[in-house]
Phosphatidylglycerophosphate synthase
Amino acid sequence: MHNIPNYITCIRILLIPVYLYFFIQGNIAAAALFFAISAFTDFFDGYIARKFNLKSKLGKLLDPLADKLTIISILLVLIYLNIIPRLLSFIILAREIFIFLSGIITYFFGLNFINPSFIGKFSIALLYLAIALKLLNIDYFGNILFYIVIPINIVSAVDYSVKAYKKIYK
């Protein structure tokens, strides 16, 4: 790891047990703070990598791994703590696990990871916002946003599937 974006991504991975600990302990404010830092680093590491041409093979592996670990872990805690409706959580969780496993499969086929599309990035940004609103007890808007995220998540999963299919079978 010879570049700052990779270090930032590693920090994001290391933050996962920190905010999970605070969630489970019931310290939602601390959990929300560390989750917000994690979400911020998700956008920050990519920006730095693109802006200063610091993209790396390791970064292409670490960043999606950190994304999926972050989303999957937070969804599992939100399900466990019953903060968001289970059906919503399971739909989003299924999409994240599907994309995570698809990425692993394409990697084992010796193919590069599929770059996230705009709709996929938009979906994750909305999901982070919805989670943040729920954590801040702004339930009404948080719930509405979760219901907006679901169809966008499904569309992005279909988009990802089509790209993966084309990549594997071309």
Notes: Residues 104 and 113 are 8 Å apart (CA to CA).
